[in-house]
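Weekend entry, working from home. Most of the wet-lab plans are on hold until the incubator is repaired, so I used the time to fold the two sequences that have been sitting in the queue since the last round of cloning. Logging both here for the record. First:
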Amino acid sequence: MGDASLHAKVIEFLPALGREATILAIAVALLIFLQRRYLLLSRFFAASADPLNLAVVRIVVFSALLLQENYARILRFAQLPKVLQLTPVGWAPIVKVFPVHEHVVAVLYWTFAAACVAAIVGIVTRFSCLLAAGLAIYVLGVPQLYGKVNHYHHLIWFALILGFSQCGDALSIDSLFAALKRADDGEIHGPVASRAYGLPLRFMMAALALVYFFPGTWKLARGGWAWIFSDNLRIQMYQKWAEFGNWTPWLRIDHFPRLIMVFALLAVCFEVSFGFLILWPRLRPLAALAGLAFHNGIGLMMRIPFLSLQFMYVIFIDWKGLFVATGKRMFPQVLPVIYDDSCKLCRRTVAILQSLNWGERVQFVGSSDHGSLIALGAEDICQQGVLPLFTAFAPEGRVYGYKAYVRLVPRLPLLSILTPILLLAPVRAMGERTYARVAESRTCSLVPMKTATPSPQTAAPSTALWCAGLSLLAINILCGSFHIVRAWPFACYPTFDRVKKAELHRLIASVAVRDGTHQEYELSHDPVMAKMFSAERWQGLTYRVEETPAGNVSDNQLHAMWELWREYHSIPDDGMSVSFYEETVPVDFDGHLNAERGPGTAGPNRTLMGGKTL
């Protein structure tokens, strides 16, 4: 029965696969045309970026990865019966080799959490990124084994790309140690914009384009125009509302069916065109804004905001450019600061401050850089052998020592929050004493300084980064082309491509009581189980159990679900037997369930799935 059903589904799917292949051929032809005519692909992947941009993405990605699933819920899934494991594509043999055990999951989770924290703060950054990504496949994969695959795969992809990149060259503990090492070699300037930082961001943008592209094309290939110009989207909204306990949004857009069709058309156009729009720098912000509007609109109408994907839109922001532009507005004039470049401690301090000088509103000048000193009108310092104090050239005149630090701190974004504290009288007095003591006891090491302005790096990205990025894109293209949605950690994202019927499926348990009556319980849309396992995961598990062909496996799964449900519900212990039904409930066009059913009997809207003697 199961093989016949599968064969029928394959035969039904083949025409859609042919239409999808046609759409893909057109898309590839368009990309070839854009490359030959405008060199868009070459320019897209050859773009440079500042290390700060990549560092911000690193912090956001691993913060989102760490917060994606809470520990208690992961452990709760690890304790579920093995019979309820309805594994994603390709995971059945893996689970046999690496079984899910709650103690193993606990150890690996905290190792994963530590790796994420290390990646966020930038300790042994590349190793921490790869370790966190590798452990995330297992740890975050545990809930994915039980029926419902939630698509936060992009977090794994981006984490892997970051692990093969130089994402720790800014905003990291590693970058501070690198600054100290540069200072000892006589260089205070850090790495500047290059392709080594731009290519990882481009791979992420391309992966994001695939996230949208294939769901859009499958809507056209499988649903056709009926997906757009029918009540399909409205029905999908009603089904989602029913899954959330007949929840309804405050804006009842379902009362305007033609407007919903317009939104359906815009959604498909956005998904298919996003990957092409981001190839043009001027259209890229428009594509990003459209994406945020797309997700928040779905969140408003269907409670699917896809926040983990929205957070990834940080890849479209030029953080370095933003800090520079903001700095110019706040501090129109650059603050020159002169330091003693013959002092090892001074060089190290300035190298760290320069690594935080994102807005470029401070110009650090070494005491041996006579050309820059003369340009600043500081000829007197050229005649001194050693600069006695840290000196800032404020608009009202020179400021020395601790006061010079107070002047430059507001211009360093990460340290600017300390400005009010530094101005407090006790802090100021302690700071001045500390600076005087350090200035008197400092030791000097004469190291020639590199006074020339650093030129942009020309080093190409590593081969490992190219291989990782291209492999990631290739695997996702393969998954998207063949509609492989229930997979982990690579997959086609949810397509919602079927034209829906105005109905909802429920799993009902009917308990035969000793007094001859029947007591019914709905297992699928249950608020208690939704709280323990999340609504979409619990409902996904019940749906997958309903799809399991009748037999021993199906019976065991139904019994296991019943026992699991009973653990979290107090019900009378007077039942003799329980029967399980798949119930098809019509959804009316007010967005509510037509829940009338005859208790205890399998009417025309029910299918008996199995039973158990209690």
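Second, folded right after the first finished:
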Amino acid sequence: MKKLIAIILIWLTGVAHADPGAPKHFKFINRGDVFTLDLNQMSYQQDFRLTYAIREGLFAPIGDAYKPVPAGATSVDISADQCVYTFHLRKQAKWSNGDPVVAGDYVFSWLRLLEEPGEYTYLFYCIKGAEAYEKSISAGTPLDVKTVGIEAVDDHTLRVTLRQPLTYFLELAAFPTFYPRHAKSMEAFAIRDKLTNRIVSYQNQYTRPPSVVTNGPFKMADWKFKRVVSLVRDENYWDAGNVKLDSIHNLVNDNTLSQYLQFSAGAVDWVCDVPAEIAPELRERGTPELKTTTAFGTFFLALFCKPAFPESVMSGAKNPLADVRVRQALALSIDKTFITQGITRMGELPAVTYIPPGTLPGFTSRPGLGRDIERAKQLLADAGYPNGQGFPKIPILYNTENKTREKISQVLKQQWKQALNIDIEIEGIEGKIFRQRVSGKEYAIATVGWFGDYPDVATFTDKYLSTSLQNDSAWVNKVYDALLDKASRTADATARFEMLADAEAMINTEFPIIPLYHYTTSMLVGAHVRGIESNPRGMIRWKDVDLVAREVNK
């Protein structure tokens, strides 16, 4: 690999200037294949990245601090008690089919998240009546929608009433889950309850061309499965005059070396997530196109915590991971420094806490637990498995397109065998099936990660509420739930952070997840690309992206 990369770098030294007047067709390789563009279902970074190009919310996050600025709205009035937000919508805003974007489009989309719950539905619980309405729908006894604090006052005025003040509500308003949808274009794909005729869901075709209607700077033109998703500039977008690119092409390529060859040959302008197999080598060579920064995320192991495995895992056998002592033993016996220095090698910080340190001003995690093999052995013995005796051969799951996770799984197998005398199986599956298995809680141990969605501690801690659909570990701790509930009702920022630090400490010591390291993000950006800067959240404002005259091979 090193020799091949060296040859490519030499070949790239002979260049000539491209035609500066050529159409601006931007090509990039995403973090992985798109899973879904349904706002109810999406939770993966690659899906959000594409959504930022085709959709827009009331506000948009800008800059390294992700400060929300008006987008679909021009302004917002906030009541004295900070519970009522009145958004004034941009009158020039249109859907890709030319229809105006109106307040009712937000009401429709937000209610969809309550009527057909997804992994991010819990974010709406801050709105008055939202949680009760969702539960009433699930129980088959729907409440009147007027009980929910979401109101279209008129076509260009949206009023939102919260249960209590929420300091980061505008950040939520900038998050894709809170984007509007075009109800009329979705009607043909409605799935109705045969008894009540109530719409219970929509076929995914509503998210695909030629049927999909969006409101962002770009609109979808084509989607070839496992090949490419193509977007073109939307002339109906309210700020179309400031959109620089003519088209965007999200290419699908899971081959590490091929990704680099495509970038080196000028076939793609941006590789947004450089695979760990080549990133350290490019870093050592001082490759100028490689941009790396600390990230707003953590890589960890998710541990299934229910007393018995699901039937699809070890035939529903008794689950040793339900015992906190077993989870602690596994956590305390891992050499995380070996993983960051021997496998990932991009300056990642070994993790003893769930939340990346220093990423949220004013918040400090409680000290976590480091490696302690002797204590790990004792914990495992106390749980009934002295020297690993009788411990079942449970599987660790990874997605096969991620070679780094495969290597980490192999190292963990070796470390746990050496430290605790236990054996595990390694199971690799394709990415979409992996996502389904983890989200469906059909695994024992899974290699996963989490990037914060908005700049607040809750973007990490809320994930492990017992009621959260994103709680892939099925971990239940009533004290944890109570702390987060109390924190959500506390206006004093210092006191709130103290409660959240106590809650995070439970994760860091009870180990429904085992944090391994805090992410860094590495991307390859062509020298001719403007508007893409490395940042902790990997955010991109697509209408600012531009291509200038580039150098290409002679």
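Plan for Monday: verify the second prediction. Residues 55-192 form a domain with the Dipeptide-binding Protein; domain 1 fold (CATH 3.90.76.10).
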